[in-house]
Design brief:
The structure holds 2 protein chains of 2 kinds. Helices cover 28% and strands 12% of the residues of chain A. By secondary structure, chain A is of the alpha+beta class. Chain A folds into 2 domains: 110 residues, no CATH class; 81 residues, Alpha-Beta Plaits. In chain A, the strands form 4 sheets. In chain A, strands 1-2 form a two-stranded antiparallel sheet. In chain A, strands 3-4 form a two-stranded antiparallel ribbon. Chain A has a two-stranded antiparallel sheet with strand order 5-8. In chain A, a hairpin with a 2-residue loop joins strand 1 and strand 2. The radius of gyration of chain A is 25 Å and the shape is extended. Chain A starts with a helix and ends in a 5-residue tail after the last helix. The longest helix of chain B has 22 residues. Chain B is 54% helix and 9% strand. The radius of gyration of chain B is 19 Å and the shape is globular. Chain B has 2 domains: 197 residues, no CATH class; 75 residues, Alpha-Beta Plaits (2-Layer Sandwich), CATH 3.30.70.20. In chain B, strand 2 and strand 3 form a beta hairpin. The C terminus of chain B is likely disordered. Classes of the chains: A alpha+beta, B mainly alpha. At the A-B interface, helix 1, helix 2, helix 3 and strand 3 of A face helix 2, strand 1, strand 2, helix 3 and helix 4 of B.
Chain lengths: 270, 280
């Protein structure tokens, strides 16, 4: 009888714990997905980051007490925050908001080296040769909305270009004739993702009411060409597809047939 | 002065609890390098790592690559609590204890210590099941699952960094403890406390009960947040309080008018009677 009671207790408690655990984990699963938040330099890919970050805040502390405190508009700017239960980031993990507190790209990267778990690691902040520098950080990528960027209207701006720590590499200015007036030039900012660190200085500097240039996480914004298209003129790009499979696979119902037949028969939209 | 001496453990505990919170706050706000981080991981004097063993275990289950700093930190914490501290973390370090002690105090002054919505004794062991379940769920979702709701993390991060809506969760715990179940969070649910109970089950510092002095007044049983550990008192034995859920808070010593309880060192070498009481 005692054994029976014991077993009953174990089953009841396990059931209650599983129910409670399911609720908590459901919340955690929802909470950990926030594709639009920006991580400090050297962060692992998000899936790994959320596993590895212990939420201690040493990076935030290092960021707050860094040597090169920046003052913008007479106010000290805090960059990194540890997400509290209201912020748009998984609870307890570090993030920054580029518009109000961009990353100032300290040369000594104090936040990254403060991390005890390796969630922020020099391995994610280096170039092809393995040299570690803040310029190789990949926190995000700047994206321009041409409809609200006043440079696309023909106005003189270049605020983002001048704010960019990687000026003339991550953001360049392209001159184009303004056909509307016939005698002025457009000076259009162009972002180059291979140099853009995603620090957010451009978003902070943008003069429009809501920034026309914004930082997005790279995996959200950047596409991927795949093996099918190659820059024939670039040796480096040919290296990229060196190990590509030569087998072509059928991807759509249309590609099962000869392209010419597809054209002649037309498409049956049923 | 007598009163201060009488409640010396309570005062010392509040000093360590608030002191730790203040050091975390000062590390971020003023750049003091004494104790940086929060209760999931901290660095003492900018050198010595300290890792919460339950967060560490969850990360292992989630499949994280564990760094040497974390391992060193977890070894230090394990050694300290396994040998010396027992479950002292819960009453001397954890700031949630401030909330749950406050709730217990509200219960005492309003004289409804025993008004529970849920049968208290039956779910005392819930925390161990919950502890294991949260580890399994951590593996499922690929992240330390309990850390998303841990009030300890939310409290310490709140003090050192930003609180956000964290106070709502802390208020919920207060209401639960004060009006639903006595010592509900710390004594029934919290898996971190369960973890420290297991770690510190054989620790050296323990409270000793002397039956000759005991007058069976029951003061200790009323104040104790884990009164099931006071079996030597109930059984009228002179023995150590060996129950692993004892948080070493020392409240029973303070309320005892007869000098029947004191902090003492368990002696494993002489082989005392404590093995017998563990079996009880």
């Amino acid at each position: 009888m005692q054994r029976r009671d014991f077993l009953k207790g174990v089953i009841q408690l396990s059931a209650a714990a599983t129910a409670a655990g399911a609720v908590v984990s459901g919340f955690a699963e929802e909470n950990k997905k926030n594709p639009l938040m920006l991580r400090p330099p050297g962060a692992l890919p998000e899936e790994e980051f959320i596993k590895t970050c212990i939420r201690c805040g040493l990076c935030v502390e290092a960021c707050k007490n860094r040597d090169n405190k920046m003052v913008l508009n007479g106010k000290e700017i805090d960059t990194l925050f540890l997400a509290a239960p209201k912020d748009d980031a998984p609870i307890g993990t570090p993030f920054f908001i580029a518009r109000t507190g961009p990353c100032f790209m300290c040369d000594d990267i104090p936040c990254m080296y403060a991390c005890p778990t390796g969630a922020l690691t020099p391995k994610e902040c280096q170039n092809d040769k393995g040299e570690v520098a803040i310029d190789y950080a990949k926190m995000g990528v700047a994206v321009i909305d041409p409809s609200s960027c006043i440079a696309f209207w023909g106005l003189q701006c270049t605020a983002c270009y001048r704010a960019c720590p990687e000026i003339d590499k991550a953001i360049t200015i392209e001159w184009k004739q303004n056909k509307r007036t016939g005698k002025h030039a457009y000076r259009i900012p162009i972002v180059h993702e291979d140099f853009c660190t995603g620090c957010g200085m451009c978003e902070e500097a943008c003069v429009t009411e809501k920034a026309a240039i914004k930082i997005f996480p790279r995996e959200v914004f950047l596409g991927k060409v795949g093996d099918r298209y190659i820059k024939g003129w670039s040796k480096k790009d040919q290296q990229r597809v060196k190990n590509a499979s030569t087998k072509t696979t059928t991807k759509t119902p249309w590609s099962t047939k000869n392209p010419l037949n597809n054209l002649n028969e037309g498409v049956n939209w049923q | 002065m007598n009163k201060i001496l009488k409640y010396k453990f309570l005062i010392l505990r509040r000093i360590t609890q608030f002191g730790i919170l203040f050091l975390y706050f000062a590390a971020n706000a003023y750049g003091w390098k004494i104790l940086i981080g929060n209760l999931s991981f901290s660095k003492l004097f900018n050198k010595i790592p300290l890792t919460d063993p339950y967060a560490f275990l969850q990360m292992l289950f989630a499949g994280a690559v564990i760094s040497s700093d974390l391992i060193a930190g977890v070894i230090i914490i394990l050694l300290f609590y396994a040998i010396i501290g027992g479950r002292a973390y819960c009453s001397w370090v954890c700031p949630v204890n401030l909330i749950t002690d406050f709730a217990a105090w509200v219960r005492r002054i309003t004289h409804h210590e025993k008004d529970n919505l849920i049968s208290a004794m039956k779910i005392r062991k819930f925390r161990y099941a919950f502890m294991i379940v949260m580890l399994i769920f951590s593996a499922f979702i690929g992240a330390a699952a309990f850390e998303f709701i841990s009030p300890i993390g939310i409290f310490t991060r709140g003090v050192a960094f930003t609180f956000g809506f964290g106070w709502v969760w802390l208020l919920t715990i207060f209401i639960f403890d004060a009006f639903v179940l006595k010592n509900g969070w710390c004594g029934h649910i919290c898996p971190v406390g369960a973890m420290y109970s297991l770690i510190g089950s054989k620790s050296l510092i323990r409270i000793y009960h002397t039956k000759e002095n005991c007058t069976n007044c029951g003061n200790c049983l009323t104040i104790c947040p884990e009164s099931q550990v006071l079996s030597p008192v109930i059984n009228k034995k002179s023995d150590f309080i060996t129950g692993m859920e004892c948080t070493e808070c020392g409240r029973c010593i303070e309320v005892c008018e007869d000098n029947a309880l004191k902090f003492s060192l368990r002696n494993y070498i002489k082989g005392e009677t404590n093995e017998k009481t563990t079996a009880n």
